[in-house]
Specification:
Blueprint: H1 15-43, H2 49-61, H3 65-83, H4 86-106, H5 120-140, H6 149-159, H7 163-182, H8 184-206, E1 211-217, H9 221-231, E2 237-242, E3 249-258, H10 262-272, E4 277-283
Antiparallel strand pairs: 1-3, 1-4, 2-3
Amino acid sequence: MNDKKIPENIFSKTPKSNTARYFQMLISLFFSALLYNYLIEPSRIATGGVNGVAVILKYLLRFNPAITIFTLSASLLVFSYIFLGKEKTKGTLVASIAYPLFVHFTKYFAPLIQINLDDMLVISIFIGLIGGLCNGLLYKTGFSNGGFPIISQILFERFKIPIGKTNFIINTIIILIGGYYFGINMIMYAIIINYINSLVVDKILLGISKNKSIFIVTTQPTKIKDFILNEMHHTITIFDVEGAYTSKKRQILLTVIPTKEYFQITESIKIIDDKVFFVVSDAYEVKGFK
């Protein structure tokens, strides 16, 4: 028996791969800083996180955004070291130092290109797209950008409060405070930004689905199997299952198809069996299934 040992870290520890990861992280943080100075800070949209706090404090108390971001990030790093330990803190250390430095230096680039901020909807969409791209590329390196998610991690470790729920509450509070000072419209723009950001991050991390997986429950398994095998030329995996309510034994057919064939196949199996039940989901990665 040839057992393969799964590596402890999915990221290679070779110097070359680490250099590439750090380079990608720094590039992502650099463009995030440009986005902050060109669009986020001038438009006064508190999108949540340390960026949102920096925007609010800049216009209320004239605080330097880079100093605000660095102070918050450094303080949260201390909490991370105390409550989460050295290993989990190392991944956020570089980003917590590099990002405020980039914010400080890229502010001198802002006067070089003048951007019309009259159309806030377009600005919001662009912030969401570019911000999501930068965050997605950063997360793909395996590093974290630190900030308030550290609080969420601590609360999860200590009290098992879901990280997503804590992040949502913290960001909502920051967005509402920004809306209170800058207007209700800014809350709506912040929601648009965060929604687009999350969609883009998912696409960067998971990729664009080119395939669909279909689970089919039917009273005509042979006919549908023959259609998919012989007409559409796709293979099928068959599972023997039992209904929990009726205890009736049935078969589930599983096939993976190109997205472009989705309509043709689903409409065809509905013709073969007008009572067919099927579930379709995106298949982001398919390997060894032909």
